[in-house]
Amino acid sequence: MPVISPNVYSQQISRELECQRALEDEYLVLTALAEEAGWSWQEIALAMMELTEQYVAAMRPSSAMEARSLLRMHSKSLH
Q1: Which value, to the nearest 10 degrees, does the dihedral of the CA atoms of residues 49, 50, 53, 59 take?
Q2: CA angle 46-47-48, nearest 5°?
Q3: Closest by alpha carbon to 5, among 14, 29, 15, 13?
Q4: Rounded-to-integer distance, Cα 66 and Cα 71, Å
Q5: Cα(4)–Cα(21) distance, integer angstroms
Q6: Helices 12-36 and 41-59, interaxial angle, to 10°?
Q7: Which of 5, 43, 53, 56 is at 20 to 30 A from 20, Cα to Cα?
Q8: 17-26 burial string, b = 16+ CB within 10 Å, else e?
Q9: Mean of pLDDT values over 62-69
Q10: Looking at the predicted structure, is the pLDDT value of residue 63 above 70?
Q11: Longest dimension (CA), the chain
């Protein structure tokens, strides 16, 4: 299912909720796939939080290029 584009006229708070709704179906699919593969909900939650922290670090202007490079290297090494 494709992720829905934001409504450019929304206020910031409603854009955040809109983004959550747009990502929710894909998030549920991803977590269900991880559970079916044998990961516990705790392991999935911790992995998602770590990935989120890495994403935030990569998007910070001061370290964006370096972090994106590290993310690419890190993601290729996981199997």
Answers
A1: -120
A2: 90
A3: 15
A4: 9
A5: 9
A6: 140
A7: 43
A8: eeeeebeeee
A9: 64
A10: no
A11: 42
Q: Does position 67 have pLDDT exceeding 70, yes or no?
A: no
CA distance 6 to 76: 30
Does residue 35 contact residue 41 with C-beta atoms inside 8 Å? yes
Structure tokens at 75: 């993601």
Domain assignments of the chain as residue spans, ordered by start: 1-38, 40-79
DSSP 7-43: -TTS-HHHHHHHHHHHHHHHHHHHHHHHHHTT--HHH
pTM for this prediction: 0.62
Greater model confidence, 11 or 15: 15
pLDDT grade for 50, boundaries at 50, 70 and 90:
very high
Cα separation, 51 vs 13, whole angstroms: 23
